[in-house]
Amino acid sequence: MDGQGIIMSIILGGLAGWVAEKIMKANIGLLTNIILGIVGALFLNFILNLLGVYTTPIWYVQFIVAIIGACILIFLWRAIRGRA
């Protein structure tokens, strides 16, 4: 997450992971929510940068990117495990 401090990244990551958990109807814990939110934001920012799309470091833009990225990670996890 560009432009965010480590504490704000953890808070936004946790919230984004929680929202993604509710959207995807997954049953995961708090630590997994935080990890999915942070890794999801990093993952989607990386993919968008490869495609030439650069997101702004504003917190609400990064929050939306983190939610979408976490949803993608949950979807990929289910597809790999065969529960999609």
TrEMBL record:
Subcellular location: Cell membrane
Assigned keywords, A-Z: Cell membrane, Membrane, Transmembrane, Transmembrane helix
Annotated Gene Ontology cellular component terms: plasma membrane
InterPro entries: Transgly_assoc
Topology in membrane: Multi-pass membrane protein
Coiled-coil annotated residue ranges, if any: none
Highest rank taxon of the organism: Bacteria
Transmembrane segments: 6-23, 30-52, 58-80
Transmembrane helix keyword on record: yes
Keyword Lyase: no
Main location: membrane
Family: Belongs to the UPF0410 family.
Descriptive protein name: Uncharacterized membrane protein YeaQ/YmgE, transglycosylase-associated protein family
